[in-house]
Amino acid sequence: MTRRIKIDFVSDVSCPWCAIGLKSLDTALSRLGDDIQADFHFQPFELNPQMGSEGEDIGEHIARKYGSSPEDVARSQKMIRERGAALGFVFDMDKRGRIYNTFDAHRLLHWAEALGKQKELKEALFVAYFTEGLNPSDHQVLENVAASVGLDRDRARQILNSDEYASEVRAREQLYQNAGIHAVPAVILNDKYLIEGGQPVEAFERALRQVAQG
């Protein structure tokens, strides 16, 4: 018997561990086959809500925010690259030199949810930023990514050139912050069970089986 599990995936498109977490979760679901039907909902979280449109150098940003040395950054990037490669995801650190504001990307993701394209858009945004090194705050980039997954380019442009869905995104961000989510990825199963961080495939598989079994 197939069990339907609601998955709220709280994340940011500029969070490498969120990309890893989603790939791990997808791999776990593939291992479970027809036993589980996943109902994905991607919820907004901004790692740097005050970031300007020009962005900031990643090394400088991490040093300022976390006190990390260049050696710390290099070790972390190596780990991220290796984890991604093991899951079939490419992190091209040479192309990704800056970190950007992601609020407009979250507005498009909110729009895509009702159209059944949210997961495709989320995955395409991860590739655009982490693999291709594109700026996820640039409206032309966002229009191109939206169109690449079958969303209407003109409608995407209309949203981006307005404040549409801004209040809805901020309300959802506040909802999860009030619920105690202060780091991502945060994966919530059936509105009850929380899995934090970019966990290994086995951890997601174990949690999904436990939830499916009640």
Task: Give structural attributes.
214 residues, alpha+beta, Glutaredoxin, 4-stranded mixed beta sheet
How is this fold's topology laid out?
Layout: E1 3-11, H1 16-32, E2 36-44, E3 56-57, H2 58-66, H3 70-86, E4 98-99, H4 103-114, H5 118-131, H6 139-148, H7 153-160, H8 166-178, E5 186-189, E6 193-196, H9 201-212
Parallel strand pairs: 1-2
Antiparallel strand pairs: 1-5, 3-4, 5-6
Helix pairs in contact: 1-9, 4-5, 5-6, 6-7
Task: Give the gist of this structure.
With 214 residues, this protein is an alpha+beta fold.
What does this structure look like?
The model has no long low-confidence stretch (mean pLDDT 96). The chain has 9 helices and 6 strands. It is of the alpha+beta class and 214 residues long. Strands 2-1-5-6 form a 4-stranded mixed beta sheet. Strands 3-4 form a two-stranded antiparallel ribbon. It has one domain: Glutaredoxin (3-Layer(aba) Sandwich), CATH 3.40.30. β1, α1 and β2 form a beta-alpha-beta unit. It is globular.
Order of helices and strands: EHEEHHEHHHHHEEH
CATH class label: Alpha Beta
What is the approximate shape? globular
Whole-angstrom Rg? 17 Å
Which strands sit side by side, in order, in the main sheet?
Answer: 2-1-5-6
Q: What's the CATH topology label?
A: Glutaredoxin
CATH superfamily: Glutaredoxin
Q: Which sheet architecture does the biggest sheet show?
A: 4 strands, mixed
- Using DSSP, what is the number of strands? 6
Number of spatially distinct domains:
1
* Number of helices, where a helix is a run of at least 4 consecutive DSSP H or I residues: 9
User: Portion of residues in helices?
Assistant: 40-55%
Beta-strand percentage range:
5-15%
